[in-house]
Automatic annotation (TrEMBL):
This is Putative LLM family oxidoreductase. It comes from the Bacteria. Keywords: Monooxygenase, Oxidoreductase. The keyword Oxidoreductase applies. Residues 1-22 are annotated as: Disordered. Pfam families: Bac_luciferase. Residues 34-329 form the Luciferase-like domain. Residues 1-12 have a biased composition (Polar residues). Gene3D superfamilies: Luciferase-like domain. GO terms for molecular function: monooxygenase activity; oxidoreductase activity, acting on paired donors, with incorporation or reduction of molecular oxygen. One of its GO terms (cellular component) is cytosol. It comes from Diaminobutyricimonas aerilata.
C-alpha cells in the first residue's frame, strides 16, 4: 500500500502550468505602489498602519476598475510602509477575486529564495492562483546592510538567488549549492506549485547586463522607467529579444513600469503632480548623487519624457505610444509617488482603469488594424 504522505505523492499532485500572462496577443494593465507614508488633508502624516489599510483599499479599487494586477514595492526606510509585501498581498487576496497579486519589485538580492518561495506559494494557494513576482537587484540599497549583505556582492547575490528561486519554482526536488546560503539536497518545499505557475518577471532599470540575464533565464522583462525618453529603452528591448533568440528561449512579454498622474485637464494634472514628483525626486537626489530636480526638467519630462501626466485622453495616448515604441504588452501605472494623499491615489487608480485603459486598448487595436 502506498504512503499518501510520501514525496512522490506530493509531487504527483502538481498541475500543469498556467497560460502565460499576458497570453500571446493579449495585454495586461496593472498598478504599482511604493506605499509611501501619505498625508492627511491638513498635511499631517497619515499613521503607518492606516497607510497599509489604505493600500489594501486601493487594491480593491483597482480590481473594481477592471485592472489586471496590483504590485507592492520593497523598502526599509522611514516614511515607506512596503517592507512586508506578502502580508499586505494576503490581506488583499481576502478582499478580491480576480486581481493578480505581485511585487514591484522584490529585492531578491537580500532575500532568501527559499523564504520567497514559501511566501508566494502560500499567497498563490490562498488567492486561488493569483500570485506573481517582479524580482530585481534593488535600486534602493538599504536592505544590504540591514540584512548583513555586502554591496560588493551586488551582482553575484542576484545571480545566485535568481538561479535558486527559479529552480525551486520550475522543478523539485532541488539539489543546489552556492556562496550565500546553505546547500539544499533533494529539497521539496510546500505548498507545491505547478512548474512555471507563478509568473516571475525580472525588473530592470537600464542595465544591459540585467537585460541579458533576464534573457538567459528565459524570463519576461519589466522595465522600471523613471525618467528620460521612452525611446532610449528601445535598444535594451532589442538586446533582450536578440539574446532570447540566440539562446533559443521561448518568446516572453516585455512590460513597462511608469509613473504618472491623471486629472480632468492637462494643466491641472501638471500642476498637481509637480510638488508630488519633485518632492520624491529631490528626496532621492542626495542619496543617489542626482542633481536637484527643477521645474524646467519636469516640464521637459511631461512634454517628451516618460512621465504620463495629463487628462485621461492625453495619458491614454502617451501609454499607447510608449507600448508601441517598445512592443510592450504590459503596462504598470505607478499611481502613487511620494506623500500623495490616499484619496488622490485611489482616484488615479480608478481613472486609470475606467477612463485610460479602455482608450489605450482601442488605440492599440486601431494600430493593429491600420486605422489612423
Amino acid at each position: 500500500m502506498s504512503n499518501p504522505w510520501s514525496q512522490d505523492s506530493a509531487l504527483s499532485t502538481r498541475a500543469e502550468p498556467r497560460v502565460a500572462d499576458p497570453a500571446p496577443g493579449g495585454l495586461h494593465f496593472g498598478i504599482g505602489t511604493f506605499a509611501f507614508q501619505t498625508a492627511d488633508d491638513d498635511g499631517s502624516p497619515t499613521p503607518g498602519p492606516q497607510v497599509l489599510r489604505d493600500v489594501v483599499a486601493e487594491a480593491v479599487a483597482a480590481e473594481r476598475a477592471g485592472l489586471d494586477s496590483f504590485g507592492i514595492a520593497e523598502h526599509y526606510r522611514p516614511g515607506m510602509m512596503d517592507s512586508a509585501a506578502p502580508v499586505v498581498l494576503g490581506a488583499i487576496a481576502s478582499r478580491t477575486t480576480t486581481l493578480r497579486l505581485g511585487t514591484a519589485v522584490t529585492v531578491l538580492s537580500t532575500q532568501d529564495p527559499v523564504r520567497v518561495y514559501n511566501e508566494y506559494a502560500t499567497l498563490d494557494a490562498v488567492s486561488d492562483g493569483r500570485a506573481q513576482l517582479i524580482v530585481g537587484r534593488g535600486s534602493a540599497i538599504e536592505s544590504f546592510p540591514l540584512f548583513g549583505f555586502r554591496l560588493a556582492d551586488y551582482e553575484q547575490l542576484f545571480e545566485e538567488k535568481l538561479d535558486l528561486l527559479m529552480r525551486l519554482l520550475r522543478e523539485q526536488p532541488v539539489t543546489w549549492s552556492g556562496r550565500f546560503r546553505s546547500p539544499l539536497v533533494d529539497q521539496v518545499l510546500e505548498p507545491s506549485v505547478a512548474p512555471g505557475a507563478i509568473p516571475v518577471w525580472v525588473g530592470v532599470g537600464g542595465s544591459p547586463q540585467s537585460v541579458v540575464r533576464a534573457a538567459r533565464f528565459g524570463l519576461p522583462l519589466m522595465l522600471g522607467i523613471i525618467g528620460g525618453s521612452i525611446e532610449r529603452f528601445g535598444p535594451l528591448v532589442d538586446l533582450y529579444r536578440r539574446t532570447m533568440q540566440t539562446l533559443g528561449q521561448a518568446e516572453q512579454p516585455v512590460g513597462m513600469h511608469v509613473h504618472g498622474f491623471i486629472a480632468d485637464t492637462d494643466d491641472e494634472a501638471i500642476e498637481r503632480f509637480w510638488p508630488v514628483w519633485s518632492g520624491m525626486m529631490n528626496a532621492e537626489a542626495p542619496k543617489r548623487g542626482w542633481a536637484p530636480f527643477r521645474r524646467d526638467r519636469y516640464d521637459a519630462e511631461v512634454a517628451a519624457g516618460s512621465l504620463v501626466v495629463g487628462s485621461p485622453e492625453t495619458v491614454a495616448r502617451q501609454v499607447a505610444a510608449g507600448m508601441r515604441t517598445l512592443g510592450a504588452t504590459r503596462f504598470d501605472f505607478v499611481a502613487a509617488a511620494s506623500r500623495m494623499p490616499h484619496k488622490d491615489k485611489r482616484e488615479n487608480i480608478e481613472r486609470f482603469g475606467l477612463e485610460v485603459v479602455p482608450h489605450v486598448r482601442t488605440l492599440l487595436a486601431d494600430t493593429a488594424t491600420g486605422v489612423a
